Amino acid sequence: MDAALNYELKAQGSYEQGKPIIIEFRIENQSLKEVWILKWYTPLEGIKGKIFDVTCDGKEIPYEGRMMKRGNPVKDDYLHLSSGESAGAQVDLAQAYSLSKCNECVVKFKGRIPDVVFEEQQVPRPADEHAAVEVVGKAVSFQIVG
After folding, report:
1. CB 135 within 8 A of CB 5
2. What is the DSSP letter of 87?
3. How many structural domains does the chain have?
4. Residue 10: alpha-carbon gap to chain centroid
5. How far is CA 111 from CA 5, 26, 27, 47, in A?
6. Do 125 and 73 touch, CB atoms closer than 8 A?
7. Number of other residues whose CB lies within 10 A of the CB of residue 23
């Protein structure tokens, strides 16, 4: 059974350089079954790894934030979504990327959930049993003004 998960990113039209750059992330379960998704490496846990592709005026911006080394997850690392339900979070890109003035900054979530479970009794699963799922969504773009 495949998980039908989609994500959406939202941003303002422009942000001021040196100020927070708040991006909204939302993930939706479009399948007919309930799912438990591992929040690791998604905006649902904040920015704790290179989870976004960021380009400004066509130039890739390197990730400068924290990198996490992980063991096995616990139940609280998973988020339950019923059929049709969604969940979201806001993150500040300025905490993990050095973003300077640009005409077009494009941000895309890498689109990968490290583990998706369809039965609650299987939560949490050990890392060697994780089944990653790709999620579909669109990039968001904005300006950074000086």
Report:
1. yes
2. E
3. 1
4. 12
5. 10, 12, 10, 14
6. yes
7. 22
- Residue 121, helix vs strand vs coil: helix
Beta bridge pairs of residue 12: none
Enclosing domain of residue 125:
5-145
CA dist., res. 82 & res. 30, Å (int):
9
Paired strand residues for 6: 28, 136
Are the beta carbons of 82 and 133 closer than 8 angstroms? no
51 DSSP β-pair partners: none
CATH code for the domain in which residue 14 is found:
2.60.40.2970
Q: 17 φ, ψ to 5°?
A: -55, 135
Is pLDDT above 60 for 106?
Answer: yes
Are 43 and 21 within 8 A, CB to CB?
A: no
Give the global pTM.
0.94
Indicate if the pLDDT at residue 80 is higher than 70: yes
Residue 105 CA neighbour count, 13 Å, CB half:
27
Task: Please compute the mean of the pLDDT values over residues 54-70 and round it to a whole number.
Answer: 94
